[in-house]
Amino acid sequence: MLGTQLLLLLILVIQSTGQLIRSFEMLIKTDQQFECSNTTCLPYSLTKAVNIGDCQVICLSQTQCQAATFHYSNSNCELFDNIVYQFGIMLNNIDTITMSVISGTRFSVGYNSINVQNRTIYPLTGFQPLNLAVKDINGDNKPDILTIDRSSSGMGVLLNRGNRTFFPEVLHTTGSAPFVVAVGDLNNDSKPDAVVSNTGSLAIGILINAGSGTFYPEYNLTIGGNVNPITIADVNNDNKLDILYSFWSSHSVGVFFNDGNATFSSRTSYATDASPIGIEYIDVNNDNQRDIITSNSDSNTVSILLGKGNATFFPQSTYPVGISPSSLAVADLNGDDSPDIVVTNSVSNTTSVLINRGNGSFLTQVLYNVGNGPSSVKIYDMNNDGYPDIIVANSNSNNIGILINKGDGSFFNQATFSVGANPSAIVVDDIDSDGKSDIIVTNSGSNNIAILYQN
Ligand SMILES: *[C@@H]1O[C@H](CO)[C@@H](O)[C@H](O)[C@H]1NC(C)=O
Ligand SMILES: *[C@@H]1O[C@H](CO)[C@@H](O)[C@H](O)[C@H]1NC(C)=O
Ligand SMILES: *[C@@H]1O[C@H](CO)[C@@H](O)[C@H](O)[C@H]1NC(C)=O
Ligand SMILES: *[C@@H]1O[C@H](CO)[C@@H](O)[C@H](O)[C@H]1NC(C)=O
Ligand SMILES: *[C@@H]1O[C@H](CO)[C@@H](O)[C@H](O)[C@H]1NC(C)=O
Ligand SMILES: *[C@@H]1O[C@H](CO)[C@@H](O)[C@H](O)[C@H]1NC(C)=O
Ligand SMILES: *[C@@H]1O[C@H](CO)[C@@H](O)[C@H](O)[C@H]1NC(C)=O
Ligand SMILES: *[C@@H]1O[C@H](CO)[C@@H](O)[C@H](O)[C@H]1NC(C)=O
Ligand SMILES: *[C@@H]1O[C@H](CO)[C@@H](O)[C@H](O)[C@H]1NC(C)=O
């Protein structure tokens, strides 16, 4: 083998306690080492390793490690953080083996720390939980859960006891066939209020927080059409939280402007493509004015309405996604400080990633396969490596998928975790206040909530 350059692809896999693994792919050069004559190409670290695999593991555990050389005779494991100079000029040495990380194939340090295997199921008294929100409702600094139990026409409140247990669900009556819930302080009393979309009664319902974890009876804002997701945000910059909703049946998004005490006397709307279902309100073109982004279930597109800052918006620009887009999430995936778009496509069983060019225009979607009937998506850094990951609920596969970010806004294949029947919505929050984010899922087919705790 002396002198030959053997190019091999080695996949190193470490099975953790959880289902997730961490790995990277390395290029191997047997019987070779770097020819190094100055400090720029010296190893940054020299340790002992039991064997080649051990040396790889040490490299894997250090984010800056780009290459490792193992010496059989003295068990030296040399780690390199900068190999830009070295590869053209290798030195033959039968005592060594050199391995370099193939860029883009690395699961970062911390991947191993994801352990969402500890699933706990919480039964509900309501039926068909379709959506949820997580927020401290009763002011005890513990995040509580609000659910939307569609076929019970109710909003459930599960108050957190703090030890991974909850008080039994208390149901509050909503309009018929509620679909989503959002929370925000609508009357400036420092207590989060709830806003629900009632797709049966064609109205937005408002439940004002009465303190101690209870809500006053719902009052409603009649829409006269099918309202879908809602987001609560100050749209006209008057420091009062308004209600922004995707108006599914009229191919638009609407805003109810808050008078200041959770009364809403004026309303406007903006055109989108057909049947907006997901909605986000976030600045995508870095002009400090927030923009509206929707996923449009009947036109298979996303719409971007750039904001002018005074509750007026430019006409939409649209981008194709997969078939029957459902949920939408917007966050910077590739570290360029411009938010990117992720959409679940419920009929094509894929997730679209649209990377922002930096000015609120987007590159053509990149598609990733997920499970069947993806219904909900969130973006969150699950492995604390600084790169946000994608979490999807695969409604017809009865699991959630986590797609780990490679660091550049591209993603590894999903790792799946079973939850319950027909997961419909997900939230990531530290529900047990242990400093690690947990995944909270409504299972609309089994009438319960699954929480995947990270230990
Ligand atoms: C160090 O050596 C490498 C080749 O081994 C060379 O390409 C590089 O320019 C050298 N750096 C300095 C600072 O001399
Ligand atoms: C799962 O969570 C429970 C409750 O906190 C805890 O007692 C148990 O040790 C955890 N199991 C694992 C495998 O982490
Ligand atoms: C959780 O705390 C409640 C009261 O705060 C207590 O009744 C219950 O037994 C605790 N449950 C567990 C599993 O520790
Ligand atoms: C509005 O709320 C009232 C009181 O809860 C309820 O009786 C009524 O049916 C609701 N109307 C609509 C359109 O949701
Ligand atoms: C909200 O209440 C605070 C006092 O708690 C007050 O300073 C602020 O002006 C109020 N905001 C609005 C928009 O009324
Ligand atoms: C508060 O709400 C009432 C109706 O309930 C309305 O008459 C009043 O003008 C509102 N006040 C403000 C400051 O918006
Ligand atoms: C909103 O701002 C834009 C751009 O600054 C301006 O052209 C437009 O007239 C404003 N519209 C309203 C209703 O203030
Ligand atoms: C955004 O940037 C891209 C790439 O730099 C450019 O091609 C495009 O025309 C820009 N779009 C707008 C709306 O400025
Ligand atoms: C998507 O999943 C559904 C089940 O939800 C299945 O019937 C269908 O064949 C899948 N479609 C594709 C394109 O894989």
Automatic annotation (TrEMBL):
Q: Which Pfam families match?
A: FG-GAP_3, PAN_1
List each coiled-coil range: none
Tell me what this protein is called: Apple domain-containing protein
Determine the domain of life of the protein's source. Eukaryota
Which terms are listed as keywords in the entry? Signal
Annotated signal peptide: 1-18
PANTHER family, per the entry: SENSOR KINASE-RELATED (PTHR46580)
Annotated Apple domain residues: 36-103
Q: Which Gene3D superfamilies does this UniProt record tie to the protein?
A: 2.30.30.100, Integrin alpha, N-terminal (2.130.10.130)
> In which organism is this protein found?
Adineta ricciae (Rotifer)
